[in-house]
Amino acid sequence: MGLLQLFLVLGIICASSGFGVDPALRISVFDELTLGEGFDGVTQVQGFHSESRAFHFQGSSREVMAPVEVSEQMVQKLRGKNEFTVLVTLKQDHLNSGVILSIHHSEHRFLELESSGQRSEVRLHYRTKGQQAHTEVFPYSLADDQWHKVSVAVSASHVILHVDCNRIYERVVEAPYMDIPEDASFWLGQRNAAHGFFKGVMQDVEILVMPQGYISQCPDLNRTCPTCNDFHGLVQKIMELQDILAKTSIKLSRAEEKMNGLDGCYCERTCSVKGVVYREDEGWTDGCRNCTCSNGTVQCEAISCPPPQCPTGTAPAYVQGACCKECQPVCLFGGRELVEGDQKAVRDSSGRCLLFECRDRTMHRVVPSEPCPELNCAESEQIALSDRCCKVCRGHDFCSEGHGCVEHSDCVNLEAGDCCVCKDGFRPLRDDNAYCEDIDECADGFVECDSKSTCVNLPGWYHCECRDGYHDNGLFSANGESCVDINECKTGRNTCANDTVCFNLEGGYDCRCPHGHNCTGDCIHDNKVKHSGQIWVLDSDRCSVCSCQAGQVMCRRMVCDCDNPNADLFCCPECDPRLSSQCLHQNGLLTYGSGDTWVENCQQCQCLQGQVDCWPLPCPPVDCEFTVVPEGECCPRCVTDPCQADTIRNDITKTCTDEHNISRFSGSSWIKHGTECTLCQCKNGHICCSVDPMCL
C-alpha cells in the first residue's frame, strides 16, 4: 500500500480577550497528515454531530503526526503562552488507554493529554518552568464507549477539567513551561510510532490560545447566576440530607442508650505487638509511627518530622535506626553538598576515574583495594555510576549490595541504583519510602468483595466477611464467594413491610409487592421499578452490577477471578492469557503477559490485553520551600540551599536586586552583566548564577 493522506482538522485559535472565537483567526494545522507504509487503522465515520468530520482510530500500525512545516506553525502559536485550552469530542473504546494529543521533543513531553481506561484516569503531562516532568492525574473514566465532550483549560498555574460541560476538577498546579523547541513533534491519537495508541473515534480536536476556551465548546457555561432548575435541585438535595440526618439521629440515640448501660463496667484490655504486651494507654514507637494501646486496639499515627535547624557545615540526612532526618557533617564537592559517608566518582577527559569520600567535613581520596571485576556484557550495556569507579552491566542487582528499606518496604533496582517502594497494600511514611504503613483498603474504596460480603481491613490486605443473610460455607475465597444464602423465609429473619410478601433469594430475600401496588423499599432506576433486594446488570455496561437496597440503588464493578476459566475477558482483560495480549517493554527486549507490572523511568507500568499503561510512581507530599530530585531517585526531597533546588515555591514578596540595582521577582532569570553564558535566577530573595555549558 502506498502513502495515504488523512484530512483531519486541529484548529489553533488566537484571541486576546473575550469568549468569542474569530473565524478569521482559525488556522487548520492538520489539513494534511502523511501516514507510513501499511497504514490501515483510521477511517472516516459518522461523528457526534455532522458539522465536522470524525475519524475512527484502530490498530497500532499508524503514524498520525503533523508535517514539519505544520508543527513549526503550531509551536510558534503556542510558544510562551500561559493560557490555552485543549478541546476534543471523543468516543473511546471500553478500557482502552491511549494518548489524545501529544507535543514532545525527544523524550520530553511539553503537552500531552492521555486517557487511561485501565485506571479510569485523565492525565495531563507537561514540563514545569523548572524543567521537570510533571503529570497531573484526574480520576475520571472516558473509556466507556460513549460520546464525551472534553476540555482542559490552563491559565498559568490554574487547570480546569470539563467533561460533557460539567466542571469535574479545578486545581492549582505548577505552571507549564511552554518554550517548545521548533522541531518538536505533534501527534494525534498516539504518543509516537510505538506507544500510547488511542482506540475509538475523535472529532473537533482543537487548541484555543485564549482564557476560558471551554466556553466555545459549552456556551451555556458563560453564566454566573443559578437557574430555576439549579435551585430546585438544591432544594431536593437539602430535603434528602434532612431525611438522612433524621435517620442518623435515631440510630445515635439508640447507641447512646446501650452505652449508658456499660458505665458501671471496667475491663482493661491489652495489646500484643511483635511479642510485646502493652497495657491500656501505654505508648511506644514503631518505626516511623507513635503507637498507643486503646481498649485493646493498637492505634498508630505517623511521626511528624519538623525540618531540622542544622548549623553551618551540616545538613539534614537520614541515619540508620532513626525515622527523622538528623544534622550530619557535610563536604562541598563540585558545587554539591555530600553528607558523611557519601562517595563521588570523578572522571577526567582521558576516562581515568578517581573516587572520593566525605569524612570529617573533608573529601578524601579512596584507593581501591582490588581492581574492578571483569564484566560479562557488551560495552554498550555497561553503565558508569556516580558513586563508584567500577562500571556495572545494565540490569545490575543493586539491592543485593544492601539497602535501607525497613518496614513494609521492598528494594527495587533502577537504571543506576536502587530505591525503596512500599509493598502492595502499604503507603510511605517518609519521602524515601523506607518506612511504610498499611492502607485501609476498605476505607479508601480499594475493595473487591462481592455483594454477599463486607470488607474488613487487614495488614497489607483485606478480608471479605459475609453480610447479614449469608453464612460462610467453609471454602476459602478472597472476594466473598464462599458466602452462601440463608433462607429467611424458613428462619423468619426478614423485615418485610406489612404491604409486601417475603420471597427467598440468593443472599437474602425480596419483599415483593402484590400486582398493581407500589411498596416500601422499591427503587426507581432508568424509569423502571426495581424491588428491594433485586440485583441486575446494567444495560449500558455489562461489567457493572446494581442492586436495590431499602430504596437506594447501589452499583459496583464486576469482581474478576482469573482462576475461573469462564471469566469475561471483556470486563477482566488482566485475565487474558493469549499471546496477542502480551506487551513489549520500552527497551524492546522484554515481553510481559496481560496483568504484569514493572517500573520504568519513575513510572509504574502495566500490560493489559496488549496495551501498556504507565502512570507516575506515588510520591509523598513535601512541605518545604526548596526541593530537588536527587540523581537516581524519583521523588523530590527538601533542601536548604536554594541554588541546589530544581523546584521552588515562589514567593513574589521575596525579590532580588541584580548588579544594576534592578529588583527581580522570584522565578525570573537574566544574563549576568558583562558575560554571555552566565545565567542568574532569583529564588525567593536568593540569587543563584551558573554557567551554561551549551552556551560555552
Description:
The N terminus is likely disordered. The longest helix is centred in the middle third of the chain and has 33 residues. The protein has four helices and 57 strands. The chain starts with a strand and ends in a 5-residue tail after the last strand. By secondary structure, it is mainly beta. Strands 2, 3, 5, 6, 7, 12, 13, 14 and 16 form a nine-stranded mixed beta sheet that branches. It has a five-stranded antiparallel beta sheet with strand order 11-10-9-8-15, with no helix packed on it.
Topology:
Blueprint: E1 4-6, E2 10-14, E3 26-28, E4 33-35, E5 42-45, E6 54-57, H1 68-78, E7 83-92, E8 97-105, E9 108-116, E10 121-127, E11 133-139, E12 147-155, E13 158-163, E14 166-172, E15 185-188, E16 200-209, H2 228-260, E17 271-273, E18 276-278, E19 283-286, E20 289-294, E21 297-302, E22 314-317, E23 326-333, E24 336-339, E25 343-347, E26 353-359, E27 362-366, E28 382-383, E29 392-393, E30 409-413, E31 418-422, E32 426-428, E33 436-438, H3 441-444, E34 453-458, E35 461-466, E36 470-472, E37 483-485, H4 488-491, E38 501-505, E39 508-512, E40 523-525, E41 528-530, E42 535-537, E43 544-549, E44 552-557, E45 583-584, E46 591-592, E47 597-600, E48 603-608, E49 611-616, E50 626-628, E51 637-638, E52 647-648, E53 656-657, E54 663-664, E55 669-671, E56 678-683, E57 686-691
Parallel strand pairs: 2-16
Antiparallel strand pairs: 1-4, 2-3, 5-6, 6-16, 7-12, 7-16, 8-9, 8-15, 9-10, 10-11, 12-13, 13-14, 17-18, 19-20, 20-21, 22-23, 23-24, 25-26, 26-27, 28-29, 30-31, 32-33, 34-35, 36-37, 38-39, 40-41, 42-43, 43-44, 45-46, 47-48, 48-49, 50-51, 50-52, 53-54, 55-56, 56-57
